[in-house]
Design brief:
Blueprint: E1 3-9, E2 12-20, E3 24-28, E4 35-36, E5 47-52, E6 55-60, E7 67-69, E8 72-74, E9 76-78, E10 84-87, E11 93-100, H1 114-124, H2 132-148, H3 152-159, H4 165-169, H5 173-189, H6 193-209, H7 217-234, H8 237-254, H9 257-273, H10 277-291, H11 297-313, H12 317-332, H13 337-353, H14 357-373, H15 377-394, H16 397-411, H17 417-429, H18 433-450, H19 453-469, H20 473-485, H21 493-509, H22 513-530, H23 533-549, H24 553-570, H25 573-583, H26 586-589, E12 628-633, H27 637-649, E13 652-657, H28 660-668, E14 674-680, H29 688-697, E15 704-708, H30 713-721, E16 726-729, H31 735-746
Parallel strand pairs: 3-4, 12-13, 12-14, 14-15, 15-16
Antiparallel strand pairs: 1-2, 1-11, 3-5, 5-6, 6-9, 7-8, 7-10, 10-11
Helix pairs in contact: 1-2, 2-3, 2-5, 3-5, 5-6, 5-7, 6-7, 7-8, 7-9, 8-9, 9-10, 9-11, 10-11, 11-12, 11-13, 12-13, 13-14, 13-15, 14-15, 15-16, 15-17, 16-17, 17-18, 17-19, 18-19, 19-20, 19-21, 20-21, 21-22, 21-23, 22-23, 23-24, 24-25, 28-29
Length: 747
């Protein structure tokens, strides 16, 4: 049976606009389209009609204003006779007619879902159509459908035919360009980058050979986007930016919002890898706004996933969790298992950093089951690596090594930097520093080849810590300097805090106690800010050990107890035992924690343990040391909590107020004996500057430290003139510097 498609004018069914007999019929504002439509709501390259035997598939080409069938916006749909097509909201309308050539009778197929679309297209390949152009269309559509569902092997199976030059030259140049574009995309998803780049470069050349009358600007933009993505994956960011800039210009000319979203996503990814978080946030925000109008759930899910990545990278872990959950919910509806597993992987790592280890463990089992059910070996290997890290945190080195060995086996010959990093940590824990260094250096080399900046930093920091432990401080400092130079650390709070902790360890090993104190204090502040309890506890333990060496025993016990409580709650058994051995030593046995006089003696902290009950000798606590009272007047709750917690550990009693009126009332209250005032310069009602002036007018000589928002000399001069004894900027506040000023004023 031979059929033809026809487009008719609405309201006048006898007025035919065009016949559709070619395998591919394009619609858009540009003159080179099969059907040019002069309308401002129609994109330059708006939609296409693909002929599949006796059926015609309408596909929107990522147009800004969308394509509609019978009033419903669609990305693709097989048409029935009489369907009303509209291009753009309130745009021009056309009626589709499906006619049998010999009799003129109407043909009425019915098919709409993506799943049945794949089945229908596969059915038409057995046997393949007589027209090689029609077969090429079928194969590229099938490849695209399989990619959207994450089935890369089947996608390659249907499109690989065009690796054969004989099959490729049997189709016109424009069709060659399209099949090579999709062949390149399939290779790209399979991480076969050299093959992907070769296919995509050939696709671009064929698009360039197409005559002006047949030029396909959407295809050109798509090839630039895919090639840019391949170059990002290979670490050639300069070339990637060049291709992505071309992609953006071409996609805008075509009016293809889907490709514009893809381009913004990739440029944001380059920004992130280069440490430009503002650029990444801008591009992914732009992608999010554009994606809302694409009617493409998979694309919207990818955008939401990237936005969650930015939040987690910046250390906004609590904000990242709902962002990941929203992305996962979006991706689940698409049926793309690979992308879903990727989202689960990112979420589980955030949960680990937040200390939700039981939730991470459950999610890991779900990930492993899902990866094994769909036989996705890479996702299985990544989940096994994450499980190895969790076992490592719990202190179970045997189970950690078993998981990492299974991960290495699943990866095969491919080297993954993160897997090597976790392997190195396990080897170091089991007292094999030489093997650990080899594993880490292998991962670092691969991270550099891939352009994986974050992994370069993290592996470099692990190497620095191992060199510190074995006493090679020259190599440790060199690794740390290289890690800090690899990226702009400032916006990436997690990386910044880890670098500070590592530098503190190097200073401590060199017996540079003041510098070590400062670095550990800063890392503790950041880890508390971003909500990473495990690493905050590591910082507490490090500070506690420094205080112990300095014979500041009350402060040492306070920090070590903070660490012990967190390790116990998390179940970090090796770290817990290390800290507990210090707390039960003769040096600290009879020392009261230097928190405050109102703090109960250890409460139940000393007996917390996830695995077993630890017996501790009852403490013979002497009378608490004399505490000094400080008034903290700060509006920001997070900053106030940071100051209160830090000063209480140093044995100060803290009273906090939120505005200037409360502060002046408390400061002038005769019943209060504040030894020092810590005031925010920008308090509500009465500023810190004015509060200082009023206190001095009232002949109150209580020492005052003002906290300002800027680091300039003008604020410091104004603070001193208003009667303050000292001034510190809230930006990049170093607690140890503040503590030194407090101690100096109260000496």
């Amino acid at each position: 049976m031979s059929v033809r498609g026809e487009l008719h004018q609405p309201g006048d069914p006898l007025r035919k606009i065009a016949d559709i007999e070619t395998p591919r019929f394009t619609i858009g504002r540009a003159g080179e389209n099969s059907l040019p439509i002069s309308s401002s709501v129609v994109s330059r390259s708006h939609a296409e009609l693909i002929r599949n035997g006796d059926e015609f598939l309408l596909r929107d080409l990522g147009s800004i204003n969308g394509s509609f069938v019978n009033g419903n916006r669609v990305s693709q749909q097989i048409l029935k006779d009489g369907d009303l097509l509209r291009f753009g909201q309130n745009g021009p309308e056309i009626i589709f007619k499906l006619i049998e050539k010999e009799t003129g009778k109407v043909i009425k197929p019915s098919l709409s879902s993506t799943g049945s679309l794949i089945d229908s297209l596969l059915g038409k390949l057995s046997p393949p159509p007589a027209d090689p152009r029609e077969e090429a269309n079928l194969r590229r559509l099938l490849a695209e459908a399989h990619l959207e569902r994450g089935d890369f092997d089947r996608a390659l199976e249907v499109i690989t035919k065009y690796n054969d030059t004989t099959n490729l030259i049997a189709i016109p140049v424009s069709f060659r360009a399209w099949v090579l574009l999709w062949l390149g995309k399939v290779y790209l998803e399979r991480k076969q980058l050299p093959l992907a780049i070769d296919a995509l470069q050939r696709s671009l050349k064929f698009f360039e050979q197409v005559s002006q009358a047949e030029s396909d600007i959407t295809g050109v933009a798509g090839a630039y986007v895919a090639l840019g993505r391949a170059l990002v994956s290979s670490g050639d960011f300069l070339a990637a930016r060049d291709h992505l800039n071309r992609a953006m210009l071409t996609a805008r000319r075509a009016g293809n919002v889907r490709l514009m979203v893809e381009t913004h996503l990739l440029v944001g990814k380059v920004d992130l890898k280069e440490g430009d978080f503002e650029g990444a946030r801008y591009n992914w925000g732009r992608a999010s706004r554009l994606a809302e109008g694409t009617n493409d759930p998979l694309l919207e899910g990818r955008v939401k996933l990237q936005q969650a990545v930015v939040l987690s990278t910046e250390g906004k872990l609590k904000e990242a969790v709902p962002a990941y959950q929203e992305a996962i919910q979006q991706i689940e509806h698409t049926g793309n298992i690979r992308l879903l597993l990727k989202a689960y992987s990112s979420l589980s790592r955030v949960l680990t950093r937040l200390g939700s280890w039981s939730a991470t463990e459950k999610l890991l089992e779900d990930r492993l089951n899902l990866a094994r059910r769909y036989k996705i070996s890479k996702a299985e290997a990544v989940a096994l690596t994450d499980r190895a890290e969790l076992k490592l945190l719990h202190g179970d080195s045997v189970a950690a090594m078993q998981s990492i060995e299974l991960s290495l086996k699943a990866h095969g010959q491919i080297i993954y930097p993160r897997t090597q990093r976790i392997l190195g940590r396990i080897l170091q824990l089991t007292q094999r520093p030489g093997e650990a260094i080899n594993a880490l250096e292998k991962g670092l080399s691969e991270a550099r080849n891939r352009g994986a900046i974050e992994e370069q930093v993290l592996i470099g920091l692990e190497l620095a810590l191992i060199h510190t432990e074995v006493g090679d401080l020259t190599k440790a400092s060199a690794e740390l300097d290289a890690s800090e130079a690899a990226t702009s650390l400032d916006p990436a709070l997690n990386l910044m805090a880890r670098a500070l902790y590592t530098r503190g360890a190097i200073h401590a090993k060199a017996h540079q106690m003041d510098e070590a104190n400062r670095c550990f204090g800063q890392s503790l502040s950041i880890f508390n800010t971003i909500g990473d309890p495990y690493r905050a506890a590591l910082s507490h333990a490090a500070v506690g050990l420094l205080r112990l060496d300095q014979r500041r025993l009350e402060s040492a016990r306070g920090h070590l107890e903070e660490a012990r409580e967190t390790f116990a709650k998390l179940g970090a058994m090796i770290d817990l035992r290390r800290v507990d051995s210090r707390l039960t030593s003769a040096t600290l046995m009879n020392i009261r924690a230097g928190m405050t006089a109102v703090m109960p003696a250890l409460s139940g902290t000393a007996r917390l343990s996830m695995a077993h009950k630890m017996m501790t000798t009852p403490l013979m606590t002497p009378a608490p040391p004399q505490t000094q009272q400080i008034l903290v007047a700060v509006a920001n709750d997070q900053l106030a909590e940071f100051l209160k917690r830090g000063l209480e550990v140093e044995n100060y009693l803290i009273e906090r107020v939120r505005d200037g009126r409360e502060a002046i009332d408390r400061a002038l209250n005769q019943s209060k004996d504040f030894r020092l005032l810590l005031l925010d310069a920008l308090l509500e009602h009465i500023s810190g500057f004015d509060l200082c002036r009023e206190l001095r007018k009232q002949k109150r000589q209580t020492p005052v430290i003002l906290l300002g928002g800027r680091q300039g000399l003008e604020d410091k001069i104004e603070a001193l003139r208003s009667g303050a004894d000292d001034f510190l900027s809230k930006k990049n506040l170093v607690f140890d510097e503040l503590l030194a000023k407090v101690e100096a004023l109260l000496r």
